[in-house]
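Supplementary notes for students who missed Thursday's class. We covered one full example, reproduced here. Read the sequence, then the structure, then the short commentary at the end.
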Amino acid sequence: MKKVLFFILVVTSASGCKKKSDNVSHKHTNALIKETSPYLLQHAHNPVNWEAWSPDVLNKAKKEDKLLLISIGYAACHWCHVMEKECFEDEEVAQVMNENFINIKIDREERPDVDQIYMDAIQMISGQGGWPLNIVALPDGRPFWGATYVPKDNWIKSLEQLAELYKNDKQRVTEYATDLANGLQAINLVENNMDHELYSLEQLDSAVQNWTQYFDTFLGGHKRAPKFMMPNNWDFLLHYATTTNKPEIMEFVDTTLTRMAYGGVYDHVGGGFSRYAVDVKWHVPHFEKMLYDNGQLTSLYAKAYAVTKNDLYKDVVAETIAFVKEELLDKSGGFYSSLDADSLGEHGNLEEGTYYVWTKEQLINLLGNDFELFQAYFNINSYGHWEGQNYVLIRDKSDEEIANSFGIDIETLRKTIKKSLATLKNERNKRPRPRLDDKILTSWNGLMLKGLVDAYRYLENNAYLDLALKNAEFIERELIKNDGSLYRNHKNGKSTINAFLDDYTTVIDAYFSLYEVTFDEKWLKLSKNLLDYTKKHFFDDASGMFFYTSDQDQSLIRRTIDVDDNVISSSNSMMAINLYKFDKLFPSEGYGETSNQMLKNVQKDFDRRAQGFSNWLHLVLFQNQNFYEIAILGENYKSMGLDLAKVYVPNSILVASEKDGNLELLKNRTVPGKTLTYVCIEGACKLPVTSAERALEQL
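Structure (token representation):
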């Protein structure tokens, strides 16, 4: 690939930026003032002539033959705030940008389709990526230069050189951009693999064994820092350990979930998880709190509670839902996206984590006689020290160990700690709060809805179902269009962006799961309608996979096919699992064939990196073990259904009705005066039984 001068700069220090008042008059206002994204609105008064991403803006760049400067970030991004303060609020910088570029600001959470492409580009250019993600591209959008955070002087120098290069040697720049665009196409290819059998259980055992070399068996998670929560990793390993009888894997999952819940990455005062820990012991978080993490972790801890009956996991579920309800729930029933890592410090500057940390003196003054117990419980010592005089609360001992060391009973310990945390929360509420990103994203709401359904399913708390139904109805009312498609975003009654594949896959899964605990066919029907829309408008015949973008949307450099499971599972792995489950209810639709082919297309990578395909691996277990279709018919179908639902049986689906229904599994099976459960495999059913206990014996 031909070489073009580029600069990638590494951040070594940060500077704070002052909070703008909503009541001041602004010297500058740009086109972002028309947007709803809080991240874009944060930049609406920069002197830079920012535009939002749109076909009209790209056409303008082509018409004027002007380079695109594309800057991508998100509202909770600390270094995005730093670069805005140092560069985008600076008039000298703005002059260079406005004279030489069409400047586009993108919220990566609203436009992941654009972010995926340019993140791949910067990784090809430099071998690294991150946010803010700054790209310079030809007027048609093909990139040729990229950087993350750049200080002011280097930023100006870089942009001037790039503008000069395009002016004096356009052919060289165009050739490099062409090569890079071809590379972006090539790394996204997925072959339709017609030759191989499906991955076997023996192969899966070997892949997991390879994976275990990265396990941190003492502190949980993987042997590295930073440590991300990676809920799909532990969700699969929970499934694998329980259905293949691997106690050593279950012990590792238990260690990981316990250590995460003990860690500073979990907000002991207010509930909910931060995005990741910067260290190996889950202590100091990157303090932003994202809906997608908390939705997935709610689901994971609820399942883990169903398996272990560990009260710690039950408490984590309850406290996480309480956090989401208190901080992220809109009155409409939708959930907001995130809380910022930064909040105002004592000097009036935005500082990371200042809302969440404590000094020893503060704790002594607030807790009085309870401080000594609290100090031992949450390590207000060298283990819990962060920086300066600040401590991040972290546990490393069980309640039993602490209670024994103080010679008190468990109940007294827990009452004292609960009282102390309530005192801290009351005090913390007086502090300047982190900024809220109050846009509502469909896929993240789908993940949170699934978490609420699983919490209700396994913890049997009706309040969780009430919250789930409110959210499900919001999605139906505000995000599903008349033609059966979805919107990606919603804020203040306004939705503007067509949904992407992950929006569909998460809502399909959540609605299907909601049907399994309510047996209201409305949710199953909505789920199937979305599934069929996706097959029609996202499926790629050539690869047998699903594009990330619909055929109704503007074509970019490529139509991405994402297959790697990251912090959020890939949209194709979620889709393949949805298709597999729907095939059990609608076997004539061909869903199963599509799901099988998708699995074949990616399974070559499982040996090498199982943790990067952990959501796909559920399908390997489904294919190689019995998968149960459980059908309940009769007057007491709801109560019996919930008795079965609360038991963790990941290799199953559950349908129920008072009388014969439209689903094949519910036809011609009603016996007057009886409530019967049928346990079936591929539609072939065992003799019906009259209790949940006997049905579980058949499993």
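Commentary. DSSP finds 25 helices and 23 strands in the chain. Residues 220 and 256 are 4 Å apart (CA to CA). If anything here is unclear, bring it to office hours.
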